[in-house]
Hints:
By secondary structure, the protein is of the alpha/beta class. 39% of the residues lie in helices and 25% in strands. It has helices spanning 51-58, 81-91, 107-117, 122-135, 151-163, 181-198, 209-214, 230-242, and strands at residues 9-20, 23-35, 40-44, 66-71, 74-75, 92-95, 169-173, 202-206, 217-222, 225-226. The strands form two sheets. It has a six-stranded mixed beta sheet with strand order 6-7-8-3-9-10. The N and C termini lie far apart (47 Å).
Amino acid sequence: MQDPHFPVVRAQHLTKSFQTGDQIFQALDDVSFEVYPGEMIAIMGPSGSGKSTLMNIIGLLDTPDTGQYWLAGEDVSELDRRRQAQVRNARIGFVFQNFNLLPRLNALANIALPLVYARIGVREREERARAALEAVGLSSKAASLPNQLSGGQKQRVAIARALVTEPSMLLADEPTGALDTRTGNEILELFRQLNQDRGVTLVVVTHDAGIGRRMDRVIGLRDGRLVPHILETYYNADERVAA
Length: 243
């Protein structure tokens, strides 16, 4: 069991820049924060704020230019790509906006896929995949292909696939962006249920203020810098303009 007082994520003074033509774009500028076991966190901000860059660093898909990042107590800032991939596969489950299911595999096989890459035996793969499918309420859809599932069911299968390796954290990138409002709310309730029942730590990258209000805490970004109280200062202002 994870120590609730020991952060799953600890980031200190992260910076990241990209060169576009003759210009240097500062995507992240001195970003520091922590995420603790069992928290539900939203990373929020407008387009170009640095959300995607930060998500890629948290997910070990990219590395910072400077700063340090600890995942489950391990300094992963300067690991080589092979070791980063090993840590990523063991400790992070990913949920994407567009599901990323393989169309020729049924739901059970899609969920078991990370265990294939981890070289888990066939019997254990199936047992763990069925347990993950049950956890998201889709036991009856094990044999269904993705094109036989609704959008919400596809996202549930994607969440089960993320859970099957028993990661320290789920990292969800706009997980309701391809869903209608009702189905999106059902997915958010599923996250809440998994958080309460299984202690899943969740980090959601979103620009949706409604999702932010349902999380335990919001990490706000604008122009690559941390912004406190972003729900009140940025999104409420937008809503007043829209009204």
